[in-house]
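Box 3.1. Reading complex inputs
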Amino acid sequence: EDKVVQSPLSLVVHEGDTVTLNCSYEVTNFRSLLWYKQEKKAPTFLFMLTSSGIEKKSGRLSSILDKKELFSILNITATQTGDSAVYLCARYGGSQGNLIFGKGTKLSVKP
Amino acid sequence: GAGVSQSPSNKVTEKGKDVELRCDPISGHTALYWYRQSLGQGLEFLIYFQGNSAPDKSGLPSDRFSAERTGGSVSTLTIQRTQQEDSAVYLCASSSGRQETQYFGPGTRLLVL
């Protein structure tokens, strides 16, 4: 089945901790993998990854894609309470126009 | 420029009634998508419009669901004879082209009583 699997489903950390969120998928012929942050209703775009092994960074967030092992990770360093959200991973298929989403990782950052 | 906008923000309706949800994509974006997110679930694809091509309706869960995109811009998602299981957040997204970054609107939370 064509799935995107995220782990863990939920995570509770304290401010200042570093977290790694995982995303795995099953197909090999895809173009892009995307990460979103969802705090209330609207997912906000974080990263689009198309090339394997090239890290993308934005402040305390970074992400990398491994097309050989079929996974991606999202790292958040020095977490803050404002990082509390559901983090969604999604990929485009080979010929599909829509994104296929994982169920997300709910991150809670405690003061 | 303005992001994706959706209306209404919240909608409460009675079972069996029809509802219309509206999406205004980012200006110039040729691709428009509808997804829904049920409580505790991931985003589920519903329908995708790309330019003037026929829409990809493969995600619509039943024939009670339909969508239009007029003039290549604004889109309306219509749910006829609503059921309680239609309760969800309906999210619209747009992108500059096929398989480009999708930007999401704030969503419409639909509650069917």
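In summary: DSSP finds no helices and eleven strands in chain A.
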